[in-house]
Specification:
three-stranded antiparallel beta sheet; mainly alpha; about 10% strand; 3 helices; about 45% helix
Length: about 110
C-alpha cells in the first residue's frame, strides 16, 4: 500500500512539473521582438527570437563575418556594423539617423 501511495505522489509531482514546464515554454515563444539597424541596411530589422535565441545572440550573429545559415533581416548578407535599437518605429528611425555621418558640402 505504501508503494502505491509513493508511486501516486511521484506521478503527481512529475505531471505537475511537465505542466509547469509547458507553461514556461509558452511564455518564451511569445518573447518581445528585437530591433537592429545598420547604415548599409534600409530601415530597421525586426526579429522575434526563437525558443533558444536571445537578442544578444542574434546581434552577435549579425556582426559575425563568418556567420551563415540564418534568415534574419530579410536573409541579408550584411555582416558587421549592426546595433541594437528600440523597436518603436519613430525612435528607431531617430537612432538610425543619429548613427549616420552627415555629408557636409564645401
Amino acid at each position: 500500500m505504501t508503494r502505491i501511495f509513493s508511486a501516486a505522489i511521484l506521478v503527481t509531482i512529475l505531471c505537475g512539473g511537465l505542466v509547469l514546464g509547458m507553461a514556461a515554454q509558452g511564455t518564451d515563444s511569445e518573447s518581445e521582438p528585437c530591433c537592429f539597424s545598420n547604415p548599409r541596411y534600409s530601415g530597421v530589422c525586426q526579429v522575434t527570437p526563437g525558443a533558444d535565441e536571445t537578442c544578444a545572440g542574434i546581434l552577435s550573429y549579425l556582426n559575425n563575418q563568418n556567420s551563415v545559415g540564418k534568415a534574419y533581416c530579410g536573409n541579408t548578407t550584411i555582416r558587421g556594423g549592426w546595433a541594437s535599437v528600440t523597436c518603436d518605429e519613430k525612435e528607431a528611425k531617430d537612432t538610425r539617423n543619429a548613427l549616420r555621418i552627415p555629408v557636409v558640402e564645401p
